[in-house]
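Supplementary Text 2. Reproducibility record for the structural model of the 262-residue chain.

All settings were left at their defaults, and a single model was retained for analysis rather than an ensemble. We include the record here because the model underlies the residue-level annotations in Supplementary Table 4.
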Amino acid sequence: MARLDGKIAVVTGGGGGLGRAMSVAFAREGARVVVQDLAEGAAKGTVEAIAAAGGPEAMSWACDVADSAAINDMFDHVRADIGLANVLVNCAGVDHTPGDGSGEGNTGTDRQVATMTDAGWQRMLDIHLNGAFYCTRAFVGALLDAGQPGSIICISSVAGLAGWGPIHYATAKAGLLGLVRAIARFNGPQGIRANAICPGVIDTPMTQSITPEMIEGLKMITPLGRVGQPDDIANAALYLASDESSFVTGQFISPNGGLVII
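Retained model, structure tokens:
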């Protein structure tokens, strides 16, 4: 029996990078996966990758996670077309936003706070934090109505643990940890678990802007001597999505090679 047989998983930001790796891994272990992404073509690409890997039929859904009405619509359609989702991965994210000062070379310097616009700050929080909440609200509400358990996995970052990277990114990722703690405490009695994965530097399109010199420097200060691969995160997500982690909630797992030890 596969580890996720009978599960229905919604993966936001599933069109590429970590989201695609987790979606394919979940399907490989028997889950029916709903791949959400802002880009319709990317979401469909992951569905095609699942089919090529021999996974169960998957569903793509294109919308903005920062649009609460669109998120509610997605969950309504999932329940009507496939069934009650019992795994949610909040993975949708970006590493910069228009107006955050990165175009002026200020991200990561002492000028990033002074040069960031209201819009740049708000968009980052809308995608990472508000979007995760909107999805979590719809997901939890449906489970409570049905009296069923479920698992929520929020993809945070070592930035949320250590304050690294752009300030709005680190802030949003830290906020996800608060969301996980609160849901674990409030909804644990109903069998709804919430945990976070806090990746280190992972080889995905989002990290392609890091220079080779910086990557080598990070490897030198990482005890395991390498950057991570998407499957390193997918494997952690598989554990949290499965019943193997049935006594785990409110926790943070940080696959980062020892770069940040918590």
